[in-house]
TrEMBL record:
<feature type="binding site">
    <location>
        <position position="110"/>
    </location>
    <ligand>
        <name>(6R)-10-formyltetrahydrofolate</name>
    </ligand>
</feature>
<comment type="similarity">
    <text>Belongs to the GART family.</text>
</comment>
<dbReference type="InterPro" id="IPR004607">
    <property type="entry name" value="GART"/>
</dbReference>
<keyword id="KW-0658">Purine biosynthesis</keyword>
<protein>
    <recommendedName>
        <fullName>Phosphoribosylglycinamide formyltransferase</fullName>
        <ecNumber>2.1.2.2</ecNumber>
    </recommendedName>
</protein>
<comment type="pathway">
    <text>Purine metabolism; IMP biosynthesis via de novo pathway; N(2)-formyl-N(1)-(5-phospho-D-ribosyl)glycinamide from N(1)-(5-phospho-D-ribosyl)glycinamide (10-formyl THF route): step 1/1.</text>
</comment>
<feature type="binding site">
    <location>
        <position position="68"/>
    </location>
    <ligand>
        <name>(6R)-10-formyltetrahydrofolate</name>
    </ligand>
</feature>
<feature type="active site" description="Proton donor">
    <location>
        <position position="112"/>
    </location>
</feature>
<dbReference type="InterPro" id="IPR036477">
    <property type="entry name" value="Formyl_transf_N_sf"/>
</dbReference>
<feature type="site" description="Raises pKa of active site His">
    <location>
        <position position="148"/>
    </location>
</feature>
<dbReference type="GO" id="GO:0004644">
    <property type="term" value="F:phosphoribosylglycinamide formyltransferase activity"/>
</dbReference>
<dbReference type="Pfam" id="PF00551">
    <property type="entry name" value="Formyl_trans_N"/>
</dbReference>
<dbReference type="InterPro" id="IPR002376">
    <property type="entry name" value="Formyl_transf_N"/>
</dbReference>
<feature type="binding site">
    <location>
        <begin position="15"/>
        <end position="17"/>
    </location>
    <ligand>
        <name>N(1)-(5-phospho-beta-D-ribosyl)glycinamide</name>
    </ligand>
</feature>
<keyword id="KW-0808">Transferase</keyword>
<feature type="domain" description="Formyl transferase N-terminal">
    <location>
        <begin position="5"/>
        <end position="185"/>
    </location>
</feature>
<comment type="function">
    <text>Catalyzes the transfer of a formyl group from 10-formyltetrahydrofolate to 5-phospho-ribosyl-glycinamide (GAR), producing 5-phospho-ribosyl-N-formylglycinamide (FGAR) and tetrahydrofolate.</text>
</comment>
């Protein structure tokens, strides 16, 4: 019987959350191991960072495929090859088909730089500042066919400070992401975040206040 759950991290860029997950997985008590890092962009800096950390890292260029389903078939083959249990999206900038998402239902998670359901999609920090909110943050959620709509697993809250630029706020949120994502992934692989009636039961680790 295998011990720790095997996780694939999907990235499209530098992979800062990927690095946080890899560092957490180095700890003997962490319940998951990073089996592979996959990117849809061959030039993604995170691929080199993963290899430097001793993690298998491969590019599957989505531009080389005629359709999303063809790309996803290649992706699925790599996940099967690496015997992956859970998929963690970390800045993966591709929308998946409903068929792919359904195959990984309850086993694929994402981190979003806002307190969902507020500010789904892009430019979250700019939109938060424009809306005049007093707190902002990040969310780890299960992936469903709708963009940024899946059941919420955990959230972290940061303050919006006077004079914040989008870059200032984004940096504060990113620090929170690096703490939240490893904790949320651990909860998922331990089976502590089941989906019941479309929601994840609130637990002690769901909300983290960060400074």
């Amino acid at each position: 019987m295998r011990g720790r759950k095997r996780v694939a991290i999907l990235i499209s860029g530098r992979g800062s959350n990927m690095t946080a997950l890899i560092e957490s997985a180095r700890k003997p008590a962490y319940p998951a191991e990073i089996a592979v890092v996959l990117s849809n962009r061959p030039g993604a800096p995170g691929l080199l960072r993963a290899r430097e950390a001793g993690i298998a890292a491969e590019a599957i260029d989505h531009k080389a495929f005629a359709s999303r389903s063809d790309f996803e078939a290649a992706l699925e083959a790599r996940l099967e090859e690496h015997v992956v249990d859970v998929v963690a999206l970390a800045g993966f900038m591709r929308l998946m088909t409903a068929a792919f998402v359904d195959r990984w239902a309850g086993r694929m998670i994402n981190i979003h730089p806002a307190l969902l359901p507020s500010f789904p999609g892009l430019a979250t920090h700019e939109r938060a500042l424009e809306a005049g909110v007093r707190v902002h943050g990040c969310t780890v959620h299960y992936v469903t066919p709708g963009m940024d709509e899946g059941p919420i697993i955990a959230q972290a809250v940061v303050p919006v400070l006077a004079g914040d630029s989008a870059a200032d706020l984004g940096a504060r949120v990113l620090r929170a992401e690096h703490r939240l994502y490893p904790a949320a992934l651990a909860r998922v692989v331990r089976g502590e975040a089941p989906i019941v009636s479309g929601r994840v039961e609130i637990g002690r680790e769901d909300l983290v206040y960060c400074d």
